[in-house]
Write a structure and sequence with these properties.
alpha/beta, 2 domains, six-stranded mixed β-sheet, two-stranded antiparallel sheet, 11 helices, about 40% helix
């Protein structure tokens, strides 16, 4: 064990723990650091003739801190240099790794698609522990805004982002689509698109195909008649069930045990019976909103900092993974 410095001894002797210190202690119990380090190790730097690379566990924990508190690379370096709770969690003894080192580590995770592997590894554990049952999926999408500044050489906003509209509100940025397990509320699928993509057209990307029930808001009306959905849940007989009204494409017959619980448009909710049916659907569908609450408010990711959709996808997959870890810690569920 490394010898504690005088500042660490003084910090450890105080009477009351800070909220950050309590949070880091809980995350240290539930985040599968060793498993994730083994995923990264084949892609990480190997010691050669130059400077010895920084310990992998330190870099991974530093990256997690930047995600939990929505910090840029320079802000993360500053936090580790001034906050003792963060320093103790990461394991920094002297100066924290600089912002360039963190930037290169983040790029390594993005280029090698490692955040997706973290997500898959954690979900496999949740399925094996029978936390995630995969009997039903709740789908939803939300806008993530991007800076629309034109103070650049081309005098145009970010070319990787697009304009989208919800009701009478306009958004510039991207959209994240998620599939949430109906019973546990855990995220099992994540997809990202630009803001001008519709929710319905990307619904099939966040469905795993073994559901018995699918829940969604009124943005997914007509999902059961989409060609890609019919192909995903066809009964295997090869028989057709009419044609799509717009594309005139033959639609395969769907399985009998698959049910769609999609909220109606407000204009279609007329009788008291309709109101009660929609309320029942919304009670189940509310679990998906808890995920967006954690990503946007607890972790603070309301606006993109990275420019491309691919880079932001890697970050959102990591945030979805950490959301599942946080929910497991709140319910005392095993993640390791």
């Amino acid at each position: 064990m490394d010898q504690m410095s005088f500042s660490q001894l003084e910090f450890a002797s105080k009477r009351k723990k800070t909220k950050k210190e309590i949070f880091f202690e809980k995350m240290d119990q539930y985040v599968p650091i060793k498993s994730w380090c083994e995923i990264i190790r084949p892609h990480y730097y190997v010691k050669g003739n130059g400077r010895e690379p920084i310990a992998l566990e330190i870099m991974l924990k530093m990256y997690l801190v930047s995600n939990w508190f929505n910090l840029s690379d320079p802000q993360t370096e500053d936090m580790l240099n001034e906050n003792m709770a963060a320093r103790n969690y990461v394991g920094v003894q002297g100066n924290a790794p600089d912002e360039t080192t963190l930037c290169k580590f983040r790029k390594l995770l993005e280029d090698s698609n490692l955040t997706e592997q973290f997500f898959t590894q954690l979900n496999d554990v949740l399925v094996s522990n029978q936390v995630m049952l995969k009997e039903g999926t709740i789908v939803d999408a939300s806008f993530i805004e991007a800076p629309n500044s034109i103070k650049n050489k081309d005098k145009t906003p970010n070319p990787n982002m697009r304009n989208g509209k919800k009701g009478k509100k306009h958004f510039f940025g991207m959209k994240v689509h998620i599939g949430v397990d109906k019973d546990s509320g855990m995220v099992h699928s994540v997809a990202t698109t630009t803001a001008n993509e519709s929710d319905l057209a990307n619904m099939h990307k966040v469905l795993h195909g073994d559901e018995k029930g699918i829940w969604g808001d009124s943005g997914y009306v007509g999902a059961e008649r989409r060609v890609e959905i019919c192909e995903k849940y066809h009964d295997g007989s090869g028989e057709f069930d009419g044609k799509h009204k717009k594309t005139n494409t033959p639609l395969l017959k769907k399985k009998n045990d698959i049910n769609f619980h999609i909220n109606k448009k407000l204009s279609k909710v007329i009788t008291a019976e309709d109101v009660e049916q929609e309320r029942v659907k919304s009670r189940v569908r509310a679990k998906v909103e808890h995920v967006f609450c954690v990503i946007k408010h607890t972790f603070g990711f309301r606006k993109t900092r990275l420019r491309t959709v691919a880079k932001n996808h890697a970050k959102l997959v990591m945030l979805a993974t950490l959301t599942n870890v946080l929910r497991c810690s709140q319910r005392n569920l095993a993640t390791i």
